[in-house]
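$ ./design --mode recover --in tokens.txt
reading tokens...
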């Protein structure tokens, strides 16, 4: 039983990888179960199990008596699929970093405002570690990720942390690339210090405004980094 589960996981991962890489494009049909079983050198029950999970998570749409259709995962996806997408990012693409920076623009200012408004002292305590921050990409990536998750945790809305947790296996790789550029580290250092000042005052509205401005500037810097 355990061997069968591991085998079906392998089939599932390979099909997801083919969808994400574009080898299986949205709107196309998967090969029939018989062909997939031959391709993966497994039994049809193993393939069927993998396909059932793919359908459950929204990767494909099953059709009675016919091969499944590949879905458009960006438009039809959910949080479960997000975790799979992140796991299958073998290389950190510029496009995916852009998507994450845009997501930060939307989410981060709100949960930072909530954190300062509801847990001012704890926000200050998290930012107090700023004095130990080393000027290298790895240190900034680790520090920034810790800040993001702590601020989300200090917000009353648990959904923010749930979303961030989906990126645990990916964020550090993405952030290390982002912080490898001196201008990006300098902007973030200035932001961290200004945020600490605002948090000490307990000004949640100003914290939200500041975070939104910096998130937008980070996005612009990344878009224009090769100009």
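writing sequence...
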């Amino acid at each position: 039983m355990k061997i069968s589960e591991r085998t079906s996981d392998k089939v599932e991962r390979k099909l997801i990888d083919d969808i994400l890489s574009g080898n299986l494009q949205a709107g196309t049909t998967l090969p029939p179960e018989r062909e997939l079983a031959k391709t993966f050198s497994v039994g049809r029950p193993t393939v069927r199990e993998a396909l059932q999970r793919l359908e459950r998570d929204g990767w494909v749409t099953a059709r009675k008596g016919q091969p499944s259709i590949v879905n458009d995962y960006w438009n039809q996806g959910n949080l479960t699929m997000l975790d799979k997408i992140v796991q299958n990012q073998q290389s950190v693409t510029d496009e995916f970093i852009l998507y994450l920076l845009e997501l930060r623009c939307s989410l981060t200012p709100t949960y930072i405002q909530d954190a300062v408004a509801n847990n001012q002292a704890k926000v200050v305590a998290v930012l107090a570690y700023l004095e130990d921050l080393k000027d290298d990409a790895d240190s900034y990536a680790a520090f920034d990720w810790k800040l993001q998750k702590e601020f989300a945790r200090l917000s009353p809305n648990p959904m923010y942390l749930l979303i961030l947790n989906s990126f645990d296996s990916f964020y550090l790789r993405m952030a290390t690339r982002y912080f490898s550029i001196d201008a990006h580290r300098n902007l973030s250092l200035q932001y961290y210090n200004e945020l600490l000042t605002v948090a000490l005052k307990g000004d949640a509205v100003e914290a939200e405004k500041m975070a939104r401005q910096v998130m937008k500037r980070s996005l612009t810097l990344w878009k224009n980094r090769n100009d």
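exit 0
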